Structure to design on (310 residues):
């Protein structure tokens, strides 16, 4: 099993440390998720506390009537003054945003829109955020060709940067079969993309949680190499843990997150994120909450770590 190699692999990766000044690889991009629809985060405060300025804003989904109408979280209009104030704050601080659709809850645009409608919905969401960087987070069944066809159309129209965020099945299994089908559809449609592996909410299969997340990411890289054999799959790959207590029990500590970061740098991954900045505090203990991590930590401690403190 892949994770059994971690006893040898992890010390080597930890010794590699952060990317050196003479390393020819681009620096690891960091853009943690923000639940922008909730309104529970002072983004300017987060930036001041951490220096982190780039964020992935979640999630654009269909409205409550389940029509093909993009909203933040199903209830907040794309042109919401509150959301626009957050966007303005990020821009003033020199940051960039990625717009994320889908997620764990709500009605997917990807499930209720036709291909042409979905392209238009993506366009509207990006324009509202002043971005051309789209993350499509698919955690439930969709029709792959509808999604990837819309992404191909959008990319031809405006050169949008596209990431597909997908769950992983485990440390020795890599991608789920549904995720593999989606990525094969994207390859067939000619979509240029990166892949974001959600290293959260899976069975660690007896490994320590940090080792399991690293092994799962290696397994995803192997799956990508089977789909894109001529690509540098590590450069097109990103990783996203869930900080603190995960929904299914594992706990991502600061030490675990540091291991994942150093692994990402040593492997030359394209980016890292985490779910979510809204949870980056110790406002609860031992529980799963959208507004706190469930572990002992200081406020924005993960954000400081991911933003360069590792």
């Amino acid at each position: 099993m892949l994770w059994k190699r971690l006893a040898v692999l992890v010390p080597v990766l930890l010794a590699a440390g952060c990317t050196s000044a003479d390393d020819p690889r681009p620096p690891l991009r960091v853009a943690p998720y923000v639940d922008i629809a909730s309104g529970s985060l002072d983004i300017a405060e987060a930036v001041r506390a951490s220096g982190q300025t780039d964020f992935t804003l979640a999630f654009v989904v269909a409205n409550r009537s389940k029509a093909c109408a993009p909203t933040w979280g199903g209830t907040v209009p794309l042109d919401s003054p509150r959301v626009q104030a957050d966007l303005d704050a990020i821009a003033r601080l020199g940051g960039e945003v990625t717009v994320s659709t889908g997620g764990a809850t709500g009605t997917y645009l990807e499930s209720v829109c036709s291909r042409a409608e979905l392209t238009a919905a993506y366009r509207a969401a990006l324009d509202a955020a002043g971005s051309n960087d789209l993350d499509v987070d698919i955690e439930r069944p969709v029709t792959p060709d509808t999604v990837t066809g819309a992404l191909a159309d959008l990319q031809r129209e405006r050169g949008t940067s596209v990431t597909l965020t997908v769950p992983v099945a485990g440390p020795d299994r890599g991608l789920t079969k549904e995720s593999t089908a989606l990525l094969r559809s994207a390859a067939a449609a000619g979509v240029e993309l990166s892949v974001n592996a959600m290293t959260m909410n899976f069975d660690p299969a007896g490994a320590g949680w940090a080792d399991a997340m690293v092994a799962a990411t290696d397994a995803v890289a192997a799956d990508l190499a089977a789909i894109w054999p001529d690509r540098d799959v590590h450069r097109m790959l990103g990783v996203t843990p869930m900080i603190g207590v995960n929904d299914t029990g594992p706990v991502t500590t600061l030490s675990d997150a540091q291991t994942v970061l150093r692994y990402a740098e040593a492997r030359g991954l394209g980016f890292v994120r985490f779910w979510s900045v809204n949870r980056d505090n110790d406002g609860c203990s031992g529980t799963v909450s959208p507004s706190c991590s469930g572990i002992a930590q200081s406020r924005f401690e993960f954000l400081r770590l991911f933003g360069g403190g590792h």
